[in-house]
Specification:
Layout (H helix, E strand, L loop, with lengths): L11 E2 L4 H11 L3 E6 L4 E7 H11 L32 E3 L4 H9 L4 E5 L6 E6 H10 L12 H4 L7 E3 L4 H11 L3 E5 L5 E6 L17 H8 L5 E2 L5 H11 L3 E5 L5 E6 H12 L2
Parallel strand pairs: 1-2, 4-5, 7-8, 10-11
Antiparallel strand pairs: 2-3, 5-6, 8-9, 11-12
Helix pairs in contact: 2-6, 3-9, 4-8
Length: 279
């Protein structure tokens, strides 16, 4: 795992308040962090942005989680929402593991891995799907012709979930939580692609959750994020470049009428690459 670059290890304390944990992720620019038990000094789990989404939806009376899902042993703390979303388990991998090991894990749907050294309790860094995509671009000559394959030929991606831009951002987050997906397309009244929203956009509520009750049209415009689209004729390498450059985790294929016809996620890309390398 030495080849996969990552910034400083960001971790949370089990007894941090939920607000403190969320603000730490926002400040450090990460979407998830391992949680340490101060009493034992060991990491006990992972909290990521989806867990915070689940908590916010619980407050608003939406989403899948209920109060009984919270660990309230020490009050409302970071440990209360460990894997509340039930979507991102605390997966560990040895520092000596290979890039192929990471590709297998990420291609199977994991979003981040805790890298351990000198024992499973010593987490030295976190690596994500985006870290692996960046590595692939830096070393694209090592992958033969795999990155030159057209996405249309590989038949990757799925039908996109859409939400009308008149709906509240909170509604979109609730849909993602209920359907256990990470992002949706925002469409106008004619069904044309207008923008996108993902669970990571909860960061926009770092000062107040009131921003989640505005229409998606205004929410998207306020974020000033790039809307990344691709063609079925684009290569796997070209799609990876756009994902990395835009710091996004999904891209859309749009038809001649402007309607989104397919969404391709980072998991789709990595699963396709794995299938090409290990047919």
């Amino acid at each position: 795992m030495e080849e996969l670059q990552q910034q400083e290890l960001v971790s949370l304390c089990a007894t941090d308040t939920i607000e403190t944990g969320f603000q730490t992720l926002v400040k450090k620019g990460v979407l998830g962090a391992p949680v340490k038990d101060e009493a034992t000094g060991e990491f006990i789990g992972l909290v990521d942005i989806k867990d915070f989404v689940g908590y916010v939806l619980l407050i608003y009376g939406q989403g899948r989680a209920s109060v009984s899902d919270l660990n309230l042993q020490q009050g409302l703390r970071v440990q209360s929402i460990l894997n509340l979303s039930k979507a991102n388990p605390f997966a560990r991998v040895s520092y000596e593991a290979s890039i192929l090991d990471a590709l297998k894990a990420f291609g199977a749907g994991l979003h981040r891995l805790a890298v351990t050294q000198d024992g499973p309790s010593n987490v030295v860094k976190m690596v994500s799907q985006m870290c692996l995509l960046q590595f692939l671009l830096r070393n694209r000559d090592k992958w033969g012709g795999a990155l030159n394959r057209k996405v249309g030929d590989l038949k990757i991606g799925s039908e996109p979930r859409t939400v009308a831009y008149g709906e509240e951002a909170l509604t979109a987050l609730a849909i993602m939580d209920q359907e256990q997906i990470s992002g949706t397309a925002i469409v106008d009244d004619a069904g044309r692609l207008y923008g996108s929203i993902s669970t990571s956009d909860l960061k926009q509520a770092s000062e107040t959750t009131e921003v989640l009750t505005v229409p998606l049209k205004a929410f998207w415009e306020a974020m000033k994020k790039p809307l990344v689209t691709v063609s079925e004729e684009d290569t796997l390498g070209a799609v990876i470049e756009r994902l990395v450059r835009g710091r996004v985790h999904r891209v859309f294929v749009v038809g001649a009428d402007g309607r989104p016809t397919k969404v391709i996620s980072t998991t789709d890309i990595l699963a396709a690459l794995l299938a090409l390398l290990l047919p």
